[in-house]
Specification:
This protein is an alpha+beta fold and 259 residues long. It is globular and about 65 Å long. The strands form four sheets. Strands 10-15-14-13-11-12 form a six-stranded antiparallel beta sheet. The protein folds into three domains: 81 residues, 2-Layer Sandwich (Ribosomal Protein S8, Chain: A, domain 1); 77 residues, 2-Layer Sandwich (Alpha-Beta Plaits), CATH 3.30.70.330; 85 residues, RNA-binding S4 domain (Structural Genomics Hypothetical 15.5 Kd Protein In mrcA-pckA Intergenic Region, Chain A). A hairpin with a 5-residue loop joins strand 14 and strand 15. Helices cover 27% and strands 31% of the residues. It contains seven helices and 15 strands. Helix 6 crosses helix 7.
Length: 259
């Protein structure tokens, strides 16, 4: 048996982590691979941290492509081989003419949830501009959405299953840079990495648009460190690399921006 209460002591997403622990207990008991619903990046990060102490079980996260934000976990005993093919996913195409009524990620998600499904059964949504979108879902949702998702905004759509190999995801562009700053404050590092003014960055932090390691950060003075991932809604991500102190006691920081 897993030490459930001990594992739950310091977690933020208690209900979700508790459900994953239950699934892990099932995997241990049945000697089978069990799956979770889709998890958001902060949920996934916390679960992986909690389970890193355990040797009885192993986790494998997969959301259909390497950069997927929302992923399902396959859980199995440590002795059982795990690979991505064991994470059951279906790709749906939501096709329509959005030339005169542009739909956003929020519009597609809203239309899907409007059919009565729950968010936990849906993965990433890839918006394809005027042609519609692709969405990754749990297999049990596919037929229901094919029948019931018929409109997004004012646009009639046809929803149908397609092969995962048809997923239209572009590789993120990567830009590496070095900045020298007086401190490791979030607003200083992020404004340098995203190429915007410090005051604009402070506004974004104040409005809740900035996350560090998938957690919303409200303090511009928060300190960052090597390995931190800074994300701004709609503007990509920034990874903090090696930090070195210069002779003038400033910080030389390696940054990688993903766009």
């Amino acid at each position: 048996m897993l030490p459930r209460e001990e594992l739950l002591k310091t977690v933020e997403n208690r209900d979700i982590v508790a459900r994953v622990i239950d699934r892990a207990q099932e995997a241990i008991k049945t000697w089978e691979v069990v799956l979770t619903d889709f998890l958001s990046p902060p949920e996934l990060a916390e679960i992986q941290r909690v389970f890193s102490r355990l040797t009885e079980v192993q986790l494998l996260a997969w959301g259909g492509y390497p950069q997927a934000e929302r992923q399902r976990l396959a859980i199995a005993r440590a002795e059982i081989p795990l690979d991505q093919s064991q994470v059951a996913l279906v790709l749906l195409e939501i096709a329509g003419n959005f030339l005169f009524d542009t739909a956003t990620h929020r519009d597609f998600l809203g239309a899907m949830l409007g059919t009565g499904i729950v968010r936990e059964k849906t993965g990433d949504i890839i918006v394809l501009g005027e042609r519609g979108a692709q969405v990754i879902v749990a297999p049990e949702l596919a037929e229901f959405l094919e029948m019931n998702l018929q409109q997004v905004r004012s646009v009639p759509v046809k929803t149908q299953r397609i092969d995962l190999s048809e997923l239209k995801v572009r590789e993120p562009k990567k830009k590496e840079m070095t900045t020298v700053e007086a401190s490791l404050r979030l607003d200083a590092i992020a404004s340098a990495g995203f190429g915007m003014s410090r005051s604009k960055m402070v506004d974004l932090i104040d409005s809740g648009d900035v996350r560090v390691n998938w957690k919303e950060v409200s303090q511009a003075s928060s300190q960052v460190k090597t390995g931190d991932l800074i994300a701004i809604r709609g503007k990509g991500r920034l990874e903090v690399g090696e930090v070195a102190v210069t002779k003038k006691d400033r910080y030389r920081v390696q940054l990688t921006r993903y766009m």
